[in-house]
Amino acid sequence: MKTEKVLAKIVRDSRRIKKDGRLPLKLRITYKGGRKYYSTGHSATQEEWIQINSDTVKGKLRTVKNDIAVIEKEAERMLDRITPFSFRRFEDEFFEKPVRYSTLEALFKAYVAQLNKNEQYGTADSYTTAIRSLLRFKQKLTLQDITVDFLRNYEKAMLESGKSATTIGIYLRPLRSIMNQAKADGIIKAEQYPFGLKKYTIPSGRNIKKALTLEQVNQIFNYSAPPKSNMEMAKDFWVFTYLCNGINMMDVGKLKWKDLNKNSITFEREKTKNAQRGSSQKIVAIRNPYIDAIIEKYSTKSRSQDSYVFKILDSSDDKKNARTKIKQFTKVVNKWTKKIGADLGFENKITTYVARHSFATILVRNGAPLELASQSLGHTNLSTTQKYFAGFDLELQAKYMKGLTDFTLPKT
Q1: Which conformational region is residue 72 in: left (phi greater than 0), alpha (psi within -120 to 50 degrees), or beta?
Q2: Residues 6+ apart with CB under 8 A from 84
Q3: Strand 23-31 relative to strand 7-12: parallel, antiparallel, unpaired?
Q4: Is the CA virtual torsion 303, 309, 313, 316 positive or negative?
Q5: Count of beta carbons in the 10 Å neighbourhood of residue 364
Q6: pLDDT value at residue 382
Q7: Distance CA 247, CA 326 (A)
Q8: Which residues lie across from 44 on neighbouring strands?
Q9: In whole angstroms, what is the distance from residue 234 CA to residue 394 CA?
Q10: What DSSP string runs through 37-89?
């Protein structure tokens, strides 16, 4: 039995004329005499339509021609995969990759929606921030706009506005990922891809040392903050982060009583749970009187195994609300620790990230193997070593951890 072919074509939809005389350009799908139309986000006059379909089209109309060609091509590719065909199946699958390839924002939004669906809220926030920055530089961006010259001009404008090379890199890496996907999907040609050797290279920031010295850590420990103030709370959680293997604030907020043992705290990094599903690494922090005092001071009344240790989250919070609450809590902690650092005359801005760096640096300076620092932080970048490294027993780990509060400094 012969299967009737499904046809995809971009047409001017004469059923609705805009006030300026333009007709919307629609993707028309035809199957068994039935037709459905889908918006591309473009419109054109009769004269413009003639130019779009010519070989000599230039400027903005050339961009429109490229955009609708991509939409038509993607629709044809998808129609070849849908068997048996139905308009509902086409819509369900095609709109996962938005029809409006005419704007870069649409591609970002589609990817952000998928990230949120996967509960990867942190990555979703990064992509949202990136596209907002790009759109502030130029509105209604298309894939064709992302050229080497565009990226160089964007970088120049960002530097002139006071942004660092590190910040520019944070914004452009999501864009590069989107462009990589577009190239893999055939939406852009290889020669249109602007990143790489002899094209555009994303700048990397200078590797500024973020770790404090043991003497500086001592000053934070002994800093006199007003009792029961946000500053005191911030100082205490900075200390907790520093002593608990540089634990991320997201992991602090999600600690549960079942993670606490008599002599240690065991947890998994939220950041790598999805990436290392099934093989995620358990991190063990050695408890000491400082840690125990902070737990006692800020813990919840409930001590059931599945209750959160700290009052940062509530059991009713879903993952998105939990992330929002922890981000706000981290913001408060960093605000006040920066003030502590400024008061102490430190050059570094004191944040929980600095606590993490300081933990690792001081640990290694105490003579601990680099592999122990990597294991304690939950890193996987020493994977070759870890393949034959059996791990450190708690006694040996505890020995090195004592150095984190060894504030008896050598005489000079």
Answers
A1: alpha
A2: none
A3: antiparallel
A4: negative
A5: 17
A6: 40
A7: 13
A8: 23
A9: 29
A10: EEEEEEEE-HHHHHHHTSTT--HHHHHHHHHHHHHHHHHHHHHHH-SS--HHH
Residue-wise pLDDT for 145-158, tens only, equals: 999 999 999 999 99
Positive or negative: CA dihedral 125, 66, 52, 14: negative
User: Is the CB of residue 407 less than 8 Å from the CB of residue 218?
Assistant: yes
Contact 237, 333 (CB under 8 A): yes
In angstroms, the Cα distances linking 54 to 66, 75, 187, 257 are: 12, 22, 21, 69
**Can you list the positions of beta strands (E) in 209-279?**
264-267
* Other CB atoms within 10 Å distance of the CB of residue 153: 13
**AA letter at 404:** L
- pTM beyond 0.85: the answer is no
Closest residue by Cα to residue 145 from 97, 95, 198, 107? 107
51 Cβ contact list (under 8 Å, min separation 6)? 57, 61
What are the φ/ψ torsions at residue 31 (nearest 5 degrees)?
-150, 120
State the residue for tokens 């870069």. Answer: 104
Sign, CA dihedral 265-270-273-276, equals negative
Run of H or E residues at 254: none
**Predicted local distance difference test score (pLDDT) of residue 228:** 93
Nearest in space to 356 (alpha carbons), one of 330, 336, 382: 330
Q: Look-up: residue for tokens 């998928």?
A: 114
| Residue 206 vs residues 153, 164, 166, 210, 334: alpha-carbon distances, Å | 21, 9, 8, 12, 22
Which region, left, alpha or beta, applies to residue 328 given φ > 0 means left and ψ of -120 to 50 means alpha? alpha
CB atoms near residue 80 (< 10 Å): 10
Tokens of 204: 């990397």
291-304 pLDDT tens trace: 999 999 999 888 89
Specify the pLDDT at position 383: 42
